[in-house]
Amino acid sequence: MSAASIAPLVFEGVSHWYGDVVAVNDVSAVVEPGITGLLGPNGAGKSTLLQLAAGVQAPSSGRVKVFGESPMGRPSVFARLGIVPEREALPPTLSARAFVEARATLLGMHDVRAAAATALATVELDEVADRAVEGFSKGMRQRVKLAAAMVHEPDVLLLDEPFNGLDPRQRAHMMQLLEHRAAAGTTILLSSHILEEIEGVASRMLVMVAGRLAASGDHRTLRRLMTDRPHTVRIRASDPRMLASVLVTLPDVIGVEIHGTQVLVRTADHAVLARQLVRAAQVCNVTLHAVQPADESLEHVFAYLVNR
Ligand SMILES: Nc1ncnc2c1ncn2[C@@H]1O[C@H](COP(=O)(O)OP(=O)(O)OP(=O)(O)O)[C@@H](O)[C@H]1O
């Protein structure tokens, strides 16, 4: 394989556990240049996967490859990576410039001042770069962190919940910035727990649920997977007959069957059903004990949808 065809980031059967907690469970994926969204509810394993990609943590099993090499303890790979962790505190009295320059120094860059100035200009913070970050908005702080992560113009950028806490204008600005980087050839993997937040910017998505890769594809594929085809949902409830009598009246319900204590519902749009189900149960005073897709392959995606 030629160097040019080596994927920027590859996960091969990667697992990671913290004591008894399996945070990442046998994930295999190839991340190509452009923007890939890493989607999943809280605790799905997104941060851990990003840390594995950055070589901050070693996989418990499986392999992570950045341009064909393990990122663990390899300065040559490290120089091609940038990461913005979810919870990174900025020293409040430090200026944006000092923070970004400190990162450039750590990375052993030759012209620290010039590199920091370029990165700060890229995130449009050059005019306020000498102010202490304690006076900065959440969006500005995110941009400082991004400037620090990009100061060495890495080929792979890993961003953990970069839109968290940003208002719509700041979010749009951040998206534009990432799109520019991606257009320049950078591979960006960014996490989020909100599909709507990243579907406009990510050309491909990896969906994680409970440590596993539950689905992948472009946002249309995922939307289709989640909503467009008929699905059968298995419901266990305190009064299946009563619940069934209400469910048959819902417009998106195609069929209802009762099997003992279970109700099998066939629906055209299970995202809509998930929303209507709770209301239907309340209307007829029925307790829902379990809601699961009968279609096993969609179990994780469905669980994600109904839990968020
Ligand atoms: N340092 C740690 N020690 C023990 N368990 C951890 C540690 N870090 C994460 N976990 C656990 O691993 C699982 C995955 O966590 P992770 O932070 O990777 O998920 P996430 O999708 O990024 O969620 P969030 O958005 O809430 O951070 C969770 O059950 C979490 O409690």
TrEMBL record:
Belongs to the ABC transporter superfamily. SMART domains: AAA (SM00382). It comes from Gemmatimonas aurantiaca. GO terms for molecular function: ATP binding; ATP hydrolysis activity. Keywords: ATP-binding, Nucleotide-binding, Transport. The keyword ATP-binding applies. InterPro entries: AAA+_ATPase, ABC_transporter-like_ATP-bd, ABC_transporter-like_CS, P-loop_NTPase. It holds the Pfam family ABC_tran. The keyword Metal-binding does not apply. This is ABC transporter ATP-binding protein. Residues 9-235 form the ABC transporter domain.
